[in-house]
Structure formats: structure tokens, C-alpha cells
Amino acid sequence: MRHISVKFKRLLAAVTVLFVVSSTQAFAHCDGLDGPVIKDARRALESGNVKLVLIWVKQIDQEEIISVFNKTLAVRKLSPGAKEFADMYFFETLVRVHRAGEGAPYTGIKPAGRDLGPAIPAADKAIETGSPKELVNFLDDAIHDGLHPLYMKVKEKKNFNPNDVNAGREYVKAYVEFVHYVEKVYQLKSGTAHSEEGSETHSH
């Protein structure tokens, strides 16, 4: 148990790295035809249970979704063409409202099968299998791959000649990149992520 606990601490730290490099992909995950929002929307329409999608929107927005849902159920009975049109309208409305609740812009429904990078599929697989082990190892490797070269660069340039200003500046540049990386990891792990103003007090 202690070993897994340590691994989870590393996971929390490593998520920062992946968030920095793939935040756009994470935002886009919910607007794909094969994403979790539309998967639940399909299930809701087939079962007639709107509660399956209300989890994706804030309470203040749920009346809009219920209204569109009920209209969709009525229209999709008319014909196969009407069903396809009504379903897509519901998907678009649901995703738009969901993204607005996250503070993200709506840019349309994206096709299935997009390349979301390795992080999102790994996270989804952990939920599907009920085991985080592969995800923890994946994130552990990710943070190592991000941190190690920055550390080695600082180590390489640390013992510069004090009279060589250019060499000193190279060291400072490497040091700043390394420390900023470590700080970003720590901020997520400790729940103390800074706003832009707050970050400036720690800039070098």
C-alpha cells in the first residue's frame, strides 16, 4: 500500500506536465463523436433517460438540456433522417452547454478517431479497467522524461567560470527552466497553483 501511495503522489505531480503540453487536447476530449459526453448522450436518447446526460452540465443549465432532450425524442420518431438531424442537434447543444460550464469555447463536434495523444486514452483506460497501475507508470515516466534533461543541463553548466559572463547566463537560463518546471509540478501536487499575478512573485 505504501508503494502505491508513493506512486500516486508521483502521478499527481506528473499530471502537471501533461496538462501543460496537452491542455488543448483535454478540452477537446468532450466534443468528439466518440467522447464521453456524446457516448452518454446516445445512451440517454436510446433509453429515454435524460439524467444520464445531466451529469455533464451545471444545475443552472439543466432545464435547457431537458427541454432540448424532450424535443429531440419527439422529432427522432418521425423518420430516420429526422432522427439523425435531431440527435446531432442534441449532441451539439449538450457539448456547447457543457463546454460553457467549463469556461471553454464551443468549436463544433469533432470526428471520431482523432489523435488525442497518449495521456487521455491512458486515463480513460485506467477508468475502464479499474486499475491505475499502467497510468501511474505512464505518468511517472512522463515526469522523469521532462525533468531529467533539465536537471542534467543545470548540472552540466553549474561549475562555470565566474569571470565568464556568457557561461554564467547559460547556467541561469538552465536553472530557471529547471526550477519553473519543478514549481509547476509542486503547485498541482500541493493544490497551490498560482494565478498569473501570483506566479510573477516566483519568477526569476
List keywords for this structure.
204 residues; mainly alpha; 72% helix
Please provide a written account of the structure.
The protein has 204 residues and is mainly α. The chain has two domains: 33-102, no CATH class; 119-200, no CATH class. The protein has helices spanning 2-28, 36-47, 51-54, 62-75, 80-102, 119-129, 133-157, 165-190, 196-200. The longest helix is centred in the N-terminal third of the chain and has 27 residues, at 2-28. The radius of gyration is 23 Å and the shape is elongated. It starts with a helix and ends with a helix. 18% of the residues are buried.
Query: What does the largest sheet look like?
Result: none
Global shape: elongated
Number of helices: 9
The Rg value, from CA coordinates, equals 23 Å
Low-confidence spans: pLDDT under 50, at least 5 residues? 16-27, 194-203
Structural category = mainly alpha
First and last CA, distance:
39 Å
Multimeric state:
single chain
Q: Which strand-content bin applies to the residues?
A: under 5%
Q: Sketch the topology as an H/E string, one letter per element.
A: HHHHHHHHH
Number of E-state strands: 0
The overall pLDDT, averaged over residues, is 80
